[in-house]
Task: inverse folding
C-alpha cells in the first residue's frame, strides 16, 4: 500500500505536467520591421504541442479590428506543430504592437502572441521628400495643411502625421511645435531652416493615452523659434477618432450583428445667405438581427447641434436625427463641419456625416 501511495502522486504529477505544457510557441514575439503603408503584412507563429495529450485551439482573437487571424481547427497530436497567422492591414503610418490571444481547449487563460513593427511610406526609409504646394499660412510660415486628422485609430496604435513647412521669410527659422498634449509627440527636421528652405514636422500619436473612444480634439501651434508664443494665427486643430474594440468574428457571427444604416452621409445646405440657422433631419435604421446602440455622437466644429430621439434600436427599429447649424459660428471655424457617430456595429463602428455650407 505504501508503495502505491508513493507512486500514485508522481503519476498524477506527470499527467498534470504533460497536460500543463500544451501548445507552446517557438517565438511568442515577431518583429516585422518596416512594412509598406497600405500593404497588409503577415506574421506566422509556429506552435508545438509539448503536452502528452491531443490539443486543439478553440478560438483565437486579435487585439484590434485592423488584423485577421487564421489557425487550424483540427486536433494537434503530441509533438505536432501548427501555424497561427495574423494579417495586419498596414493602413496607419507609425509603430504598431498587437497580439493574438490563443484559447486552447480545456484552458481558461490564453496564450498571447505578439507582432510589432513600423508602417512607413517606403520600406527602405522612413522619410519621403516632398515638393507639393504650401497653400496655408501659420504665422509667417507656409504649410501644406491647416488641420490634422488621426482617423480609424485602434487602441495601442501609434500612427504618425506630417506637416510640410516652407520658410518664405527673409530670416533663418527654427520651427517648433508648441502646446502638445501628452498623447502627441513631435519633431521638426531639419531643426534650422534658411530662407526658401523646407522642413517636415512629424507628429506621433500614442493612442494608449487617450481617455476614451470616439472623438478627441485639441489644438497645437507652429512657432518660428523657441521663444515664440502661442497665437490664433499659428493654430493647427487636431482630431483623433479612436474606434471601439471589436474582437475577430466569424462570418456566422457577423451575419447576426446589428447593422447601422443612415439615410444620408452628406448634407449640403447650399448657399445660406443671411440665414442664422439651417436644419436637416436624417433617419437611422437597424437592418441587422441584434440591438443597435448609438454609443456616441460628437461634432467637429462649434455651431453644430445634434439630437437623436433614440440611442438603442431593435432590429428594424428607426430613429430620427436632427442637425442644426448656427451659420456664423460654423463659417468662422477652421475645421470642416462634420458629425461623428460611434456604433456597436462591428462593420460600421464609425460613421462621419459631412456638412456642406456656403455663404
Result:
Amino acid at each position: 500500500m505504501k508503495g502505491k501511495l508513493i507512486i500514485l502522486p508522481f503519476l498524477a504529477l506527470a499527467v498534470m505536467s504533460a497536460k500543463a505544457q500544451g501548445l507552446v510557441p517557438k517565438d511568442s514575439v515577431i518583429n516585422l520591421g518596416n512594412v509598406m503603408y497600405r500593404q497588409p503584412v503577415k506574421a506566422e507563429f509556429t506552435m508545438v504541442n509539448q503536452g502528452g495529450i491531443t490539443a486543439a485551439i478553440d478560438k483565437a482573437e486579435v487585439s484590434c479590428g485592423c488584423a485577421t487571424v487564421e489557425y487550424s481547427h483540427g486536433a494537434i497530436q503530441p509533438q505536432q506543430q501548427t501555424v497561427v497567422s495574423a494579417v495586419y492591414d498596414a493602413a496607419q503610418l507609425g509603430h504598431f504592437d498587437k497580439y493574438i490571444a490563443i484559447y486552447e481547449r480545456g484552458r481558461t487563460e490564453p496564450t498571447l502572441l505578439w507582432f510589432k513593427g513600423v508602417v512607413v511610406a517606403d520600406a527602405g526609409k522612413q522619410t519621403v521628400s516632398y515638393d507639393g504646394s504650401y497653400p496655408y499660412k501659420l504665422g509667417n510660415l507656409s504649410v501644406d495643411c491647416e488641420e490634422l486628422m488621426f482617423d480609424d485609430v485602434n487602441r495601442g496604435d501609434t500612427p504618425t502625421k506630417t506637416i510640410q513647412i516652407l520658410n518664405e521669410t527673409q530670416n533663418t527659422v527654427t520651427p517648433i511645435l508648441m502646446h502638445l498634449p501628452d498623447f502627441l509627440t513631435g519633431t521638426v527636421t531639419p531643426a534650422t531652416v534658411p530662407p526658401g528652405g523646407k522642413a517636415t514636422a512629424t507628429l506621433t500619436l500614442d493612442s494608449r493615452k487617450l481617455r476614451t473612444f470616439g472623438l478627441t480634439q485639441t489644438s497645437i501651434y507652429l512657432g518660428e523659434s523657441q521663444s515664440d508664443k502661442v497665437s490664433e494665427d499659428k493654430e493647427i486643430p487636431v482630431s483623433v477618432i479612436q474606434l471601439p474594440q471589436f474582437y475577430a468574428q466569424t462570418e456566422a457571427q457577423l451575419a447576426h450583428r446589428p447593422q447601422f444604416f443612415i439615410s444620408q452621409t452628406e448634407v449640403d445646405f447650399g448657399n445660406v445667405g443671411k440665414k442664422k440657422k439651417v436644419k436637416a433631419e436624417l433617419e437611422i435604421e437597424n437592418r441587422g438581427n441584434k440591438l443597435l446602440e448609438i454609443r456616441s455622437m460628437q461634432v467637429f466644429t462649434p455651431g453644430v447641434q445634434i439630437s437623436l430621439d433614440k440611442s438603442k434600436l431593435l432590429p428594424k427599429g428607426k430613429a430620427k436625427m436632427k442637425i442644426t447649424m448656427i451659420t456664423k459660428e460654423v463659417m468662422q471655424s477652421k475645421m470642416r463641419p462634420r458629425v461623428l457617430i460611434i456604433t456597436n456595429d462591428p462593420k460600421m463602428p464609425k460613421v462621419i456625416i459631412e456638412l456642406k455650407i456656403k455663404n
Notes: The chain is about 10% helix and 50% strand. Residues 2-21 form the longest helix (20 residues). Confidence is low (pLDDT under 50) at residues 1-19, 123-129.
